[in-house]
Amino acid sequence: MFTRVGLTGGIAAGKSTVAKRFVQLGAYVIDYDQLARQAVAKGSEGLDQVIQRFGRRARGRDGEMNRAWVSAHVFSDPEKLQELNDIVHPIVFREAGRLEYQWLDTHPEPKDGTRRLVVHDIPLLVETSRWDYFDAIITVEAPKETRIRRMIRNRGMKREDAVARINNQASQQQRFDICDYVIDSTKPLEQMFEDVDRLYHVLTHPSY
Ligand SMILES: CC(C)(COP(=O)(O)OP(=O)(O)OC[C@H]1O[C@@H](n2cnc3c(N)ncnc32)[C@H](O)[C@@H]1O)[C@@H](O)C(=O)NCCC(=O)NCCS
Ligand SMILES: Nc1ncnc2c1ncn2[C@@H]1O[C@H](COP(=O)(O)OP(=O)(O)OP(=O)(O)O)[C@@H](O)[C@H]1O
Known about the structure:
binds dephospho coenzyme A, Dephospho-CoA kinase, binds adenosine-5'-triphosphate, globular, ATP-binding, Rossmann fold
């Protein structure tokens, strides 16, 4: 037995921070942002498809996808964003399924009767309509303004780019509508981690 959790939240809400805590507790985390990068890595079929669709400028001189150029294009045009998603998402979901299978196959069930926990860290859970796939869904939330501040401070983004990214994502209400648990990332880190620890306990015990 295992519990398959979907972990979501808007950009800069704190998903990776929560995911790291789950790893420390013993969960297996599949990072969809990382898989999306692999899907269009240098020399990949995914990147070839992106070039076919968006043109040669989508590839930088180093052979990698030119993420800044692609971002500027897709986050100002919903149709283009959809086209990019249509290329990347099937590759990502296939790989996520493979990784989960591989981990379960190599990590036997604990002898103490608790369940194994697989956490899919997937920013676009609402947008990809895959919520039926999970036993439980967690969303990590902080107000828009807090997230914009984090993006400007930590990622060096311009305010307008941060806002454009938020506006291309599902709303907080849409995430609330599909989730079972909310983690409030405006709490101090230690308190947020205590919430994650409690959730880990609930999700790994068979009565769940
Ligand atoms: C648009 C791209 C080139 C931007 O690259 P960049 O390095 O600036 O951002 P990064 O990949 O680190 O993503 C950071 C955050 O941006 C947001 N974001 C990324 N892609 C999307 C998208 N298609 N729609 C809405 N928000 C998105 C998410 O909150 C994500 O956590 C890149 O994110 C991409 O290829 N996106 C398409 C694949 C995708 O949907 N990834 C999300 C996980 S499935
Ligand atoms: N409870 C908290 N208190 C203060 N800062 C926090 C808290 N949780 C997360 N942060 C900070 O917010 C920023 C964004 O967090 P994180 O990278 O985990 O978000 P994310 O949702 O994974 O982002 P992205 O969507 O860009 O992948 C980080 O600098 C992180 O340290």
